[in-house]
Recover the amino acids of this structure.
């Protein structure tokens, strides 16, 4: 049965380590004939959450009309969600955190999703996984399927890329 797969890359470097792993996941998911959407947050112009609570209406829509509305809609529809981030100062990058803040209209309406986490770092994930897992835990019945972390150049780590591809294929 075909699944709806959503990949959210927060890398500022298209083709960088975490984004490359996203692409491998996407290839695997497409080869398995899933419906796949990938968004790179750096290519979407959006602002931070204003904490105005206007999104807490039955429509669950933010008053800010920017590129995130489509992404949030895809999150609600997805069976599988992948979050990818480079690690900055032992945490997720600011772009992903700002995105999570903007998920306020829907975060506790996400239900029965399978999650994958992709990180890339120089030496350690630090506390990044805690923040990402905290966000995921707000959804109902989440399942963390796998975490993929690269240290160094992922293009030189074919075994890891194969693992990520296979996770996409079998998601």
């Amino acid at each position: 049965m075909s699944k709806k797969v959503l990949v959210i890359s927060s890398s500022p470097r298209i083709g960088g380590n975490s984004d490359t792993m996203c692409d491998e996941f996407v290839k695997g998911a497409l080869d398995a004939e899933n419906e796949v959407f990938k968004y790179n947050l750096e290519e979407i112009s959006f602002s931070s959450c204003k904490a105005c609570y206007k999104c807490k209406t039955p429509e669950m829509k933010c008053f800010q009309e920017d590129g995130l509305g489509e992404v949030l809609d895809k999150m609600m529809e997805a069976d599988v969600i992948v979050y990818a981030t480079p690690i900055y100062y032992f945490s997720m990058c600011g772009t992903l955190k700002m995105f999570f803040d903007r998920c306020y209209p829907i975060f506790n309406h996400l239900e029965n999703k399978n999650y994958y986490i992709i990180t890339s770092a120089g030496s350690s994930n630090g506390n990044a996984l805690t923040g990402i897992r905290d966000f995921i835990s707000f959804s109902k019945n989440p399942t963390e399927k796998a975490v993929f972390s690269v240290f160094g150049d992922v293009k030189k780590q074919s075994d890891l890329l194969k693992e990520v591809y296979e996770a996409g294929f079998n998601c």
Q: What stands out?
A: The first helix runs from residue 17 to 31. The two ends are 11 Å apart (CA to CA). DSSP finds five helices and six strands in the chain.
